[in-house]
Automatic annotation (TrEMBL):
GO molecular-function terms, A-Z: GTP binding; ribosome binding
Family named by the database record: Belongs to the TRAFAC class TrmE-Era-EngA-EngB-Septin-like GTPase superfamily. EngA (Der) GTPase family.
UniProtKB keywords: GTP-binding, Nucleotide-binding, Repeat, Ribosome biogenesis
Official protein name in the record: GTPase Der
Positions that bind GTP 1: 9-16, 56-60, 118-121
Organism superkingdom: Bacteria
GO biological process, any: ribosome biogenesis
Residues in EngA-type G domain copies: 3-162
Biological role: GTPase that plays an essential role in the late steps of ribosome biogenesis.
Encoding gene, per UniProt annotation: der
Protein source organism: Amedibacterium intestinale
Subunit structure: Associates with the 50S ribosomal subunit.
Length: 162
């Protein structure tokens, strides 16, 4: 095992869809049904001879707690457990305040971060990635987890960081 990848991001950006793509099974529940069992958020993946574990932190939820507490906990788990963090945002929504909040938490960590702009479903939407340079986390990578576009480039960046 080369290391652990943790997936973080606000709800509905496509973390679980990406997780399922990376591990090649439908394990994590897409669309944030609360109360998912813990084993659903852990998976194993392989890319370019490297094997790694994957955590979908969005599936780790706190009952009846403010959203920020939940995000704080998810990011804390990612920073503690992971060797590489995949930060997922949505090209359909652009940068939101929650994205900026998470970006600031991640910047304080020393962990390598790969920034995936999901929901870029075709090339005509590719310009949507540029505003995400403003998060200060490096080069955004266009991905469409739903259509399986860009996930290879994203995985290349992930395994480089292990
Ligand atoms: P999570 O809350 O971050 O885990 O997000 P989910 O994986 O549950 O996805 C939230 C919604 O976005 C679902 O309706 C998905 O089908 C949709 N979605 C995920 N990836 C894509 C994508 O690449 N393109 C589009 N258009 N929708 C997507
Ligand atoms: Mg999810």
């Amino acid at each position: 095992i080369s290391g652990i990848l943790a997936i973080v991001g606000r709800p509905n950006v496509g973390k679980s869809t990406i997780f399922n793509r990376i591990i090649g099974e439908r394990k994590s529940i897409v669309e944030d049904i609360p109360g998912v069992t813990r084993d659903r958020i852990y998976g194993k993946a392989e890319w370019l001879t490297k094997e790694f574990r994957v955590i979908d932190t969005g599936g780790i939820q706190l009952a009846d707690q403010p959203f920020r507490d939940e995000i704080n906990m998810q990011v804390e788990i990612a920073i503690d457990e992971a060797d590489v963090i995949l930060f997922v945002v949505s090209g359909k929504d652009g940068i939101t305040m929650d994205d900026e909040y998470i970006a600031r938490l991640l910047q304080k960590s020393r962990k390598p971060i790969v920034l995936a702009v999901n929901k870029v479903d075709d090339f005509s939407q590719n310009d949507a990635i540029y505003e995400f340079y403003n998060l200060g986390l490096g080069d955004p990578i266009a991905v469409s987890a739903a259509h399986g576009i860009g996930t290879g480039d994203m995985l290349d960046e992930i395994v480089k960081a292990f």
